[in-house]
UniProtKB/TrEMBL annotation:
This is Aspartate carbamoyltransferase. The keyword Ribosomal protein does not apply. One of its GO terms (biological process) is 'de novo' pyrimidine nucleobase biosynthetic process. Belongs to the aspartate/ornithine carbamoyltransferase superfamily. ATCase family. GO terms for cellular component: cytosol. It catalyses: carbamoyl phosphate + L-aspartate = N-carbamoyl-L-aspartate + phosphate + H(+). Residues 2-146 form the Aspartate/ornithine carbamoyltransferase carbamoyl-P binding domain. L-aspartate binds at K82, R178, R234.
Length: 329
């Protein structure tokens, strides 16, 4: 693996290997070995053209826990505001010796452009591009699902290292969600059944070709589908207004039809867990009751994100394959 650009790039074995490695990283943190020397002397650049709290901070934390040097670049306050291009920004950062570039960009495809351009010699990690992909979010979600639902917890009848046998409902603004796209692909690769639930206006054209089921009725999916996990998506109002569209259905209609509240939480199977990638619109896609309930693993998702991103950086920069490549150069 030279880059991580899309969840669809990962085979089942590669994804399981990342999750296993994340488990080892989490174990070192649990033993209070806060810092590993693995990436000493390597430089990780966080190149963020779009706002972020969780992803940017957890990549920074992950890189630092592996002893890498970290350069944080945020488009706000940089020469991007003077019109500097992605190419010139990347060339500037490459001149400072980037071994890996973690990029978030509002344009779908920007990480692929960077990886194929030669503007950077480092590994490129997609930290979210437009409405397209967010592969490390899908990996941390899969890691969280595996920890809670596979083996002796949640669904003891589901065992193994992937998510075979689990049913995950992904609910909400699928149209604008890179998290939904990445999760549908990765969950399918790992053997889970996925049902997307959304109002018709927030379902993308071409969804029939995705490896999942689609429903417009959340209550039916909860009662009949008995999902092992429900993943609530953020309603992305900023992308609706930038696309010139309004919020439809209305916020009240949306939360009545598609919001997770105490009643729906109660109707879920007893072992089912609640995920949300954050940031949350409390009172819209998820009520405060549901977000703060003991079924919600939303804060744990953030912690798991550090372990998963440590695993990704480790495998890209110090894993067997990259070591072989470097010695062959
Ligand atoms: N889940 C996620 O990508 O959150 P941030 O936008 O805060 O990074």
């Amino acid at each position: 693996m030279k880059h991580l650009l899309s969840a669809s790039d990962l085979t089942r074995d590669e994804a399981v290997h990342i999750l296993d490695t994340a488990g080892q990283m989490a174990a070192t943190q649990a033993r209070e070995i806060k810092k590993l020397p693995t990436l000493r002397g390597r430089t990780v650049v966080n190149l963020f053209f779009e706002d972020s709290t969780r992803t940017r901070i957890s990549f920074e934390t992950a890189a630092k826990r592996l002893s890498a040097d970290v350069i944080n670049f945020s488009a706000k306050g940089s020469s991007v505001s003077k019109g500097e291009s992605l190419k010139d920004t990347a060339l500037t950062l490459q001149a400072m010796g980037a071994d890996a570039v973690v990029i978030r960009h509002q344009a779908s495809g920007a990480p692929h452009t960077l990886a194929s351009s030669g503007w950077t010699h480092g590994a490129v990690v997609n930290a979210g591009d437009g409405t397209h992909q967010h592969p490390t979010q899908a990996l941390l979600d899969a890691y969280t699902l595996r920890r809670h639902l596979v083996g002796d917890r949640g669904r003891a009848d589901v065992s193994g290292r992937d998510l075979h046998g689990l049913h995950v409902a992904v609910v909400g603004d699928v149209l604008h969600s890179r998290v939904a796209r990445s999760n549908v692909q990765l969950l399918h690769t790992l053997g889970a059944r996925v049902t997307l639930v959304a109002p018709p206006t927030l379902v993308p054209v071409g969804v029939e070709a995705w490896p999942c089921e689609v429903s417009y009725r959340l209550d039916d999916v909860i009662v009949d589908g008995k999902p092992d996990a429900i993943m609530m998506l953020r309603v992305q109002r900023e992308r609706m207004s930038s696309a010139g569209g309004g919020f439809f259905p209305s916020p009240l209609e949306y939360s009545r039809g598609y919001g997770l509240d105490a009643r729906r939480l109660e109707a879920l199977p007893e072992h089912a867990i609640v995920l949300h990638p954050g940031p949350m619109n409390r009172g819209l896609e998820i009520s405060a009751d549901a977000a703060d309930s003991d079924r919600a693993v939303i804060v744990e998702q953030v912690a798991n994100g550090v372990a998963v991103r440590m695993a990704v950086l480790y495998l890209l920069l110090a894993g067997e394959q990259s070591t072989t490549n470097r010695s062959a150069e």
